[in-house]
Amino acid sequence: MPELRKSGHGKQNGAGWAPETYSRTTPPQLYGKPRADRAMVAMKWLLGAWSPPWELGVRAPSPAPPAATTVVSVARRTVVAGDGSVVELVLDAAPGDTLPTWTAGAHIRVHLPSSRVREYSLCGDPDGRGYRIAVRKVSDDGASGEVHSLALGATLRISRPINAFPLALPGHGSSAGAVHFIAAGIGITPILPMIMTAERWSVPWTLLYLGRSRADLPYLDRLAAYGNRVTIHVDDESGVMTGEDLKDSLPPGAALYLCGPARFVDLAVARFGDSPECAELHFERFGGAAGSGGTAFTVSFRSGRAPVQVSEDEGMLDALVRADPSIGYSCRQGFCGTCRLKILDGEVIHRDSTLTDLERARGYMLPCVSRAGGDDLVIDL
């Protein structure tokens, strides 16, 4: 039986996302970058460590680190779902600038004019110009409504691409014989660049694309070009697909990439997790705010700033960012550790799989998924 490799990633929706990863990681270079020659590495180190007397203390300054965000503008706006609920934005760099390269599965953090920050998968061609994101409108007054209201020429700040859902192609980091994609609704966004990459490398692939109706599914016209490699299943025509139906769709020995709402992904993972036919399992989920669910509580700050109320149906990180948009975070699913905080007083319900027992004993928590076990927390901010 092939080794089962599992990885996962999720995001907060708008529809934007966040990671959780299991088992061994994807190779750092998927497509065959050669190893450096050890003798040359040693020679470069020796030469770099030696300086003639007249150069001591006069070394060139190190290059400046890359900017945390890049300014882009909305160059094109296209409705990509039949019911009008999904809009695609093409984001271009400022004149004279170039956008960083990226690989299939990557996402960016988008800083909206309202100071909201959301994460969206890049859904264009990794070899193309500009970045493309597609967002389903969930409400008029939320982040998704704000994205839909952006006019051509509007400027935004975005992060560099982040990839916690990388594609490992058969023969280039994966031992699988083929790749099978399953996407539900707006979950197609990170899958599209994976399909383009598989095509470019002549890797056999298939896609099962699920939704409530055809009008609800974005990019159907683009996917039609791939013929019978794409299977469309919509509830209003064929009924809701069961876990066993999902399992039957998997070609034996294929690596599986899943993306969709949290409940759908959880159902699929439960069906495929112990399947001997599944060579590898990778997934990305989106849905409601991570870290929600539980009793309301109050967060107080060592600095004395105004306390923050966290309601039952929101995560602690969401409440903190609402009060202070500068608070750092990335994955929103307890994977990356960017949002780690020190707790000075109060009980914590830990829901992450990243912090060690020692870190928890020392009072650290990840507010993106964890929350108070009582009425109050005091944090070191």
Q: What share of the residues lie within helices?
A: 10-25%
For the record, the CATH architecture of the largest domain stands as 3-Layer(aba) Sandwich
Largest beta sheet, briefly? 7 strands, mixed
**Spans where pLDDT lies below 50 across 5 or more residues:** 1-6, 9-67
CATH class membership of the largest domain: Alpha Beta
| Class derived from helix and strand content | alpha/beta
Query: What is the domain total for the residues?
Result: 3
CATH topology of the largest domain, which one?
Answer: Rossmann fold
**What is the name of the CATH superfamily of the largest domain?**
Nucleotide-binding domain of ferredoxin-NADP reductase (FNR) module
Q: Count of DSSP helices?
A: 9
The best one-word shape is: globular
Spatial arrangement of strands, main beta sheet = 2-1-15-14-11-12-13
Strand content: 25-35%
What does this structure look like?
This protein is an alpha/beta fold and 381 residues long. It folds into 3 domains: 70-158, Translation factors (Elongation Factor Tu (Ef-tu), domain 3, Beta Barrel), CATH 2.40.30; 168-287, 3-Layer(aba) Sandwich (Rossmann fold), CATH 3.40.50; 297-379, Ubiquitin-like (UB roll), CATH 3.10.20.30. The protein has helices at 38-49, 143-148, 188-200, 220-223, 235-238, 243-248, 262-272, 316-323, 357-361; strands spanning 5-12, 18-19, 70-79, 86-93, 107-111, 117-121, 131-136, 155-158, 169-170, 173-174, 178-184, 205-211, 230-234, 254-261, 278-287, 297-301, 308-310, 341-345, 348-349, 364-365, 371-372, 376-379. The chain has a 7-stranded mixed β-sheet with strand order 2-1-15-14-11-12-13, sandwiched between helices. Strands 6-5-8-3-4-7 form a 6-stranded antiparallel β-sheet. The radius of gyration is 23 Å and the shape is globular. Residues 1-6 and 9-67 have low confidence and may be disordered.
